[in-house]
Structure to design on (1014 residues):
């Protein structure tokens, strides 16, 4: 039972609500991910800068630094994080989805997310790339 | 897994309840404490979000009501009063009472629905009554429960296949779409109605079905004044937008909100459960198609960063490969537009009907048109097909660039001919010299034409740069609650590829700026006696060797007073200077670095990019930006861009440890020779080249730079001047390169010795030497 | 002039209004295998569209207008491919 098995994909779950964090974290852990959790945007930013995650699951609505801002920073030219990001929000509004995609999210899901949906999406998003595409 | 999660929720609930209690009580004493309101709002929001993970609808509903009320307080739409605090406390007291039951049984007590409903109503009443017309609040409240659970059967008229394809996108994104059914009555033509005209006003059409009755009579028995058609459509436009279009014929049209759940139910014949057994595979398929569709939104949204583009491409590759599609990666370094087209192709291959956001794909559609009209060319004048049928050859950019390189080399070779002629003349071959000169004139003309022809190959229509505007205007106007009509003119005007590509970015910014700051909200426009719908005009006009691109709106124009104040506050201009400035000069200050009229950085034109970035981007292209502001009537920003980038070929050299450029047209040849071959004539160092005396002048000396140590060999750049050849001694030669020459400005303006600056590929600024001035200095040093 | 009615092809230009629906329908009635050139047509009144649909016209040149091209031209083509309810005595079937 190794904690840091390098062959296992690593995910970061960002949510200010511990219950939601646990929920998403457990789904990913049972799907074979090593999961780190962050309770706010700053913590998430630090972790994401220090660790090469294979997947980020980010709550949109958080105090101080919200998911959009976190994502905008991660996708900026300074950080240039290219790992897949799933944003999760309580709002089904189109403008929120637009904001998430504009900030660079790869998928916008509305809470509560069904466990098998998250598991499926996480699996696809961390599958090995068919043809490595190196971007400048 | 349920148990630890529930335990976590109970623990979280205790914390949140304590926070809310304390916060509410302190708030009652100090209702103006913004941080406190925020904290309580957040607690309610978190409660709502977490409760959604369990089957606790009572809890979710009640905390949602509390969240909405607190949101209104937080946004300042509603002052918090004692009665509201009572309602909120009652809400959280009820929650507190439910928690032990939830912990024990996993669900709320039986009485919870009724209790919760009563308190929620109380909270909503406070919200409704006191918030008055405050629209954001009412919208939030109303937006959640509107979607009807049962869709009208006419939705099926849109085609089951189309609807099924739409489902994964709706599911994956949680979005909804509007369906409309418009049945104009028989006599509508007599009332001056044109149903097709109304339908074309519907923004963001995804699907349009026009249905004629099955028994549409043949034209011979047909009464053209009886309206018989029926229109069914899907649109991504908001409900209000659609209703606005049909405001004069409300009883002939029905508009419904289509959500994933409602659509699934309609398609699967009213059965609540997902279609059984074989649903497994299609469900996964839907998610994958939804993922692809999501990536196209990333790429189509605003201006994705390179990291976003890379991430989207990788996700699209994974989704496509999971779908079993054979995939080729987009070209490395492909721009967002190209990647978007690539994803569109994948989405299409995956069988989704999610229509590309823009229907402006002129090239593809023309190709399709050419094919179709070729089907039946009977008796058709050939000229009619000429535009659609013009043949297009796709060429790799690198090949065109290679041509351009060769043209550059040809120009250099051509430039040596006059010297050959001079040499011939000196040797007494006057006839030969004359013939060489004649040939030179011909080669000169042909090489210029050749260069022009190659540049023409690189011409692209401005529509390429305009392409992002329709989507941008639509998204922004919806987001900002403004009504804006986008008009494009002169999209076919062509300019060099580099100009067009670099124009796209500033245009996006100008469009954002106009929507954000220029165009007023509808109420303000109506109050000012303007049409509710604003017009944003993007126009390109050829103007000699330049192209004018205008971004014109009929909004407020530049508020000169406000600009004056801001410029003073931000210390951009001295107060004394401001007083002597004309209104037009003050309006120009919006382009000053550090200036932004937005009181706070908005997320529309925010992100720290100002109009100064637009100006510098345009100037980098060798263009200019001017404004024409008519206060209260609108603002026109006019970009004047060179048709082709003023591409100059320069030879890079080093002298005195610095890099410089010399226009290749001035260069006769480059020579490396031992110092021993340099002789002195009349006190000057000269080089004898093919019997011609070339005076030497060290570049470092002419520019007052430290001279490099003399090696064994000397590098001489022979340039052509009005007084004959001059040998400029440099440290080293480098390669030739194309640059865009900009006149000297800022601190360097007016510095003699240079004809301009250019930005090199490695980001360094290159000073380009003025050979004429160098010659003057060399002569003066004599 | 938004309507140019030739021997077999009608050229529609600009905005075709409800007033033009009548001459257009009259022309369609007396023309065998009618065709329309919509290249420069920017809008078509519903009455004119109905007449074109009823006559099962063939589109000879597609409209440049994006809306007409995306939604109306395919509709006309679909209709042209369906047989007339009541074929005219001497005009409907012609070898193409």
């Amino acid at each position: 039972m190794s904690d840091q098995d390098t062959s296992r994909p690593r995910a970061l779950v960002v949510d200010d609500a511990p219950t939601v964090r646990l929920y998403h974290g457990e789904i990913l852990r049972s799907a074979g991910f090593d999961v780190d959790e962050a309770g706010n945007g700053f913590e998430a930013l630090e972790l994401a800068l220090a660790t090469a995650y294979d997947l980020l699951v980010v709550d949109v609505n958080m105090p101080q630094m919200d998911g959009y801002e976190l994502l905008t920073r991660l996708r900026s030219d300074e950080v240039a994080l290219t790992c897949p990001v799933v944003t999760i929000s309580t709002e089904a509004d189109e403008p929120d989805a637009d904001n998430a995609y504009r900030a660079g999210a790869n998928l916008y899901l509305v809470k509560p997310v069904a466990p098998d949906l998250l598991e499926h999406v996480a699996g696809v998003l961390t599958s090995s790339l068919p043809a490595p595409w190196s971007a400048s | 897994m349920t148990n630890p999660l529930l335990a976590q929720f109970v623990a979280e609930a205790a914390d949140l309840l304590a926070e809310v209690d304390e916060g509410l009580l302190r708030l009652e004493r100090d209702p103006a404490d913004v941080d406190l309101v925020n904290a309580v709002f957040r607690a309610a929001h978190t409660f709502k979000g977490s409760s959604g993970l369990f089957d606790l609808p009572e809890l979710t509903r009640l905390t949602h009501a509390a969240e909405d009320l607190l949101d209104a307080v937080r946004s300042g739409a509603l002052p918090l009063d004692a009665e509201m605090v009572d309602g909120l406390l009652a809400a959280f007291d009820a929650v507190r009472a439910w928690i032990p039951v939830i912990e024990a049984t996993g669900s709320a007590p039986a009485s919870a629905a009724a209790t919760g409903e009563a308190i929620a109503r109380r909270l909503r009443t406070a919200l409704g009554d006191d918030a008055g017309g405050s629209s954001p609040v009412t919208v939030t409240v109303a937006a959640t429960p509107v979607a009807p659970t049962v869709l009208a059967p006419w939705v099926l008229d849109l085609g089951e296949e189309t609807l099924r394809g739409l489902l994964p996108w709706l599911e994956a994104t949680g979005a909804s779409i509007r369906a409309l059914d418009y049945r104009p009555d028989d006599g509508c033509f007599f009332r001056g109605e044109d149903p097709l005209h109304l339908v074309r006003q519907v923004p963001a059409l995804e699907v349009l079905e026009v249905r004629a009755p099955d028994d549409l009579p043949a034209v011979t028995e047909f009464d053209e004044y009886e309206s018989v058609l029926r229109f069914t459509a899907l649109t991504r436009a908001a409900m209000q937008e659609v209703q606005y279009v049909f405001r004069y014929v409300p009883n002939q049209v029905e508009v419904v909100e289509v959500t994933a759940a409602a659509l699934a139910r309609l398609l699967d014949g009213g059965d609540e459960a997902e279609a059984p057994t074989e649903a497994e595979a299609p469900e996964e398929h839907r998610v994958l198609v939804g993922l692809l569709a999501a990536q196209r939104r990333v790429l189509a949204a605003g201006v994705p960063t390179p990291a976003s583009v890379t991430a989207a491409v990788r996700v699209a590759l994974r989704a496509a490969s999971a779908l079993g599609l054979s995939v080729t990666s987009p070209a490395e370094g492909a721009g967002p537009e190209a990647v978007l087209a690539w994803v569109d192709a994948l989405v299409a291959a995956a069988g989704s009907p999610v229509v590309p956001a823009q229907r402006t794909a002129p090239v593809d559609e023309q190709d399709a048109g050419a094919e179709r009209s070729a089907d039946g060319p009977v008796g058709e004048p050939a000229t009619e097909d000429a535009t659609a049928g013009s043949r297009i050859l796709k060429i790799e950019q690198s090949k065109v660039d290679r041509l351009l390189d060769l043209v550059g080399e040809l120009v250099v070779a051509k430039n040596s001919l006059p010297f050959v002629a001079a040499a011939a003349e000196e040797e007494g071959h006057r006839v030969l010299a004359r013939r060489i000169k004649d040939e030179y004139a011909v080669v000169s003309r042909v090489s210029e034409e050749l260069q022009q022809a190659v540049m023409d190959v690189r011409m692209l229509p401005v529509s390429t740069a305009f392409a992002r505007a329709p989507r941008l205007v639509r998204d922004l106007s919806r987001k900002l609650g403004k009504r804006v009509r986008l008009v494009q003119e002169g999209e076919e005007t062509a300019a060099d590829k580099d100009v067009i590509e670099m124009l796209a970015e500033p245009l996006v910014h100008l469009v954002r700026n106009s929507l954000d700051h220029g165009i007023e909200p509808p109420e303000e426009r109506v109050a000012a006696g303007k049409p509710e719908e604003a017009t944003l005009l993007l126009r390109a006009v050829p103007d000699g060797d330049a192209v004018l691109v205008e971004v014109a709106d009929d909004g407020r124009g530049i508020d000169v007073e406000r600009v004056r104040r801001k410029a003073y506050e931000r210390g951009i201009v001295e107060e004394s200077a401001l007083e002597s400035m004309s209104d037009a000069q003050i309006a120009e200050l919006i382009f000053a670095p550090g200036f932004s009229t937005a009181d706070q950085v908005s997320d529309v034109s925010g992100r720290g990019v100002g109009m100064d970035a637009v100006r510098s981007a345009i100037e980098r292209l060798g263009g200019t930006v001017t404004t024409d502001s008519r206060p209260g009537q609108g603002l026109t920003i006019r970009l004047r861009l060179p048709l082709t980038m003023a591409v100059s070929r320069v030879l890079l050299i080093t002298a005195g440890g610095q890099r410089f450029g010399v226009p290749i047209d001035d260069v006769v040849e480059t020579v490396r020779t031992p110092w021993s071959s340099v002789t002195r004539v009349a006190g000057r160092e000269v080089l004898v080249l093919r019997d011609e005396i070339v005076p030497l002048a060290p570049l470092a000396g002419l520019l007052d730079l430290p001279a490099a140590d003399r090696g064994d060999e000397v590098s001489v750049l022979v340039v052509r001047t009005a007084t004959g050849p001059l040998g400029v001694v440099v440290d080293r030669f480098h390669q030739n390169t194309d640059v865009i020459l900009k006149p000297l400005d800022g601190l360097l303006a007016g510095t003699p010795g240079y004809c301009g600056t250019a930005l090199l590929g490695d980001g360094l600024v290159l000073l380009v030497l003025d050979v004429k001035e160098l010659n003057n200095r060399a002569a003066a040093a004599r | 002039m938004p309507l140019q009615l030739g021997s077999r092809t009608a050229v529609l230009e600009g905005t075709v209004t409800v007033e033009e629906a009548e001459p257009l329908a009259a022309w369609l009635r007396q023309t065998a295998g009618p065709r329309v050139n919509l290249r420069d047509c920017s809008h078509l009144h519903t009455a004119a569209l109905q007449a074109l649909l009823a006559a099962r016209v063939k589109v000879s040149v597609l409209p440049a207008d994006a809306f007409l091209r995306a939604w109306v031209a395919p509709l006309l083509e679909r209709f042209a491919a369906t047989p007339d309810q009541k074929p005219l005595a001497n005009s409907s079937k012609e070898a193409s």
